[in-house]
Amino acid sequence: MTIEQAAVVGLGLIGGSFAGALRQQGIRVKGVDADVAAGQAAAQLGLIDELSDDLAAVLDGADVVVLCVPPATVLRLLPEVDRLAPPSTMILDTASVKVAVTEVMSTLVRGERAIGGHPLAGKEASGPAASEAGLFRGHTFILTPSTVTSPRTMDLAAQVVRMIGGNPYVMPAARHDEVLARTSHLPQILSTALALDTQDVDAVCIGPALRDMTRLAGSDPTMWRDILMLNRQNVVAEANGYIAQLREFVSMLEAGETARIEGVLRSGRQAGGALRGVAA
Amino acid sequence: MTIEQAAVVGLGLIGGSFAGALRQQGIRVKGVDADVAAGQAAAQLGLIDELSDDLAAVLDGADVVVLCVPPATVLRLLPEVDRLAPPSTMILDTASVKVAVTEVMSTLVRGERAIGGHPLAGKEASGPAASEAGLFRGHTFILTPSTVTSPRTMDLAAQVVRMIGGNPYVMPAARHDEVLARTSHLPQILSTALALDTQDVDAVCIGPALRDMTRLAGSDPTMWRDILMLNRQNVVAEANGYIAQLREFVSMLEAGETARIEGVLRSGRQAGGALRGVAA
Asked: Going by DSSP bridges, is the β-strand pair A140-145/B28-32 parallel, antiparallel, or unpaired?
């Protein structure tokens, strides 16, 4: 199966980076973005070969279409893309929630050619100007088949992921949403809350630690609204578990349990070291 | 007032970096560390001119002594340093809590020559091998006088801070402990709790966001035990405020209040941008 042409819908950080990485591999890339300025920026940056405002024209001749729009927009666009795309065009998305996406994918007329995707790469900056063709290089790219995804689609998706330098990793959508609620969606909430909590602090008192911990708060609010809402059951459960853990730590502090506090800090250091000692 | 010789007590990340920065300015530095291996490493790395295991010998001839040991050890050592140091030796510490430290400073026989200090620089790595002479360069270095600190001591401390590249910033110890509970001590707890929360997660699912948010968890447990215990009243208050904020966000998620969630995320991005010194 050779891939010669791709369509990228949404030309922000992820879409722009995806398009740029595909172009570097000699793939012809057509792009579309509802935001005219973003589309033009992507074209000027050389991330795509051709810009259009017509979804049908962008999909025409594409071996693969990649949806790089906020999660709720993915859900809305999937039936339209399925209707407009040539029958053999593989459909891949990049949203950070996968149960809602694969549920819609399984209901498409040609659902066998659609598969969920989530690159574990990114940064808090957004928009085409933040794009990097190397963004996915060496990073895990999770693939979540729907109940009707074909083996051909799975192979093709893995091929596309390797093409942009990512490491394909197949997992069930439900498991993805559970794990990411903990590793990504919870950290996002924590960072946003901390940024709000410290916004009035004298700037001279802000050190590198706080800057690190509030970096995520800079992420795109529209995208994160969709992610948190679509995965809210898991996110609420994780947040409640985390709050319970914080409460316990606060109780130890109130009770002055020095040895237990040191024990928690020591375990945390070990856990943090293990988290950083691994290539993702 | 010229400074020709300094004593550094504790040769970990902060002490080693402080010693190295002073040496770069032509100051003769004598060092001591209760951990024999750490002391020897600091000597081998050229961070100090002379290593000794005798506090009196290290203090002999010093124009300034800098205490770079965990906060509880600072409290314990202060009276001994005051007793052993020549009468004109200025005493500066670097602990992340300042009320407890300046209270002890105000009770010293020669309390006028002691002042609290806290460099807002650091990293999660510890020990002399992690030291960098440039660690403090361009960073705020908070100075907190006690009730008896003399103007001469304040001038001398500011001079030492500028010598190592830091920006001296004077503030009351009580205010320091309140602000740092929010900007540093709370983030430390959040990072530790998140590292513990995610330690069993499949390594392949760990992205850059989680690594950022758990970096602080790698900090020295002994030092942080002291910081959290000595500032626990402020830390408990800040943690409780943060928990209340998280709870409110979880309630919005449970109630499916999409617009309010987007509003919080948007405010969080603005706040985070302001913290990083950029317009968001």
From this structure: unpaired
Q: Is B242 on the interface with A (CB under 8 A)?
A: yes
Is A126 touching B (CB cutoff 8 A)?
no
Coil, strand or helix at B100 = helix
First to last CA, chain B: 45
Pick A192's closest partner by Cβ from B210, B221, B268.
Answer: B268
Beta-ladder partners of A66? A8, A92
The β-bridge relationship of strands B140-145 and B114-119 is antiparallel
The residues, any chain, with a CB within 8 Å of residue B49's CB and separated by 6 or more, are: B23, B28, B29, B30
- Which residue from A187, A195, A206 is facing B209, i.e. has the nearest CB? A187
Q: Is B26 at the interface with chain A, CB within 8 A?
A: no
Tell me the three state secondary structure of residue B201: coil
> What ipTM does this complex have?
0.90
Q: Enter the pTM of the model.
A: 0.91
pLDDT tens string A153-209: 999 999 999 999 999 999 999 999 999 999 999 999 999 999 999 998 988 888 888
Tokens of A35: 């935001």
Asked if residue A119 lies in contact with residue A279, where contact means CB atoms within 8 angstroms, the answer is: no
| Amino acid of residue A209 | A
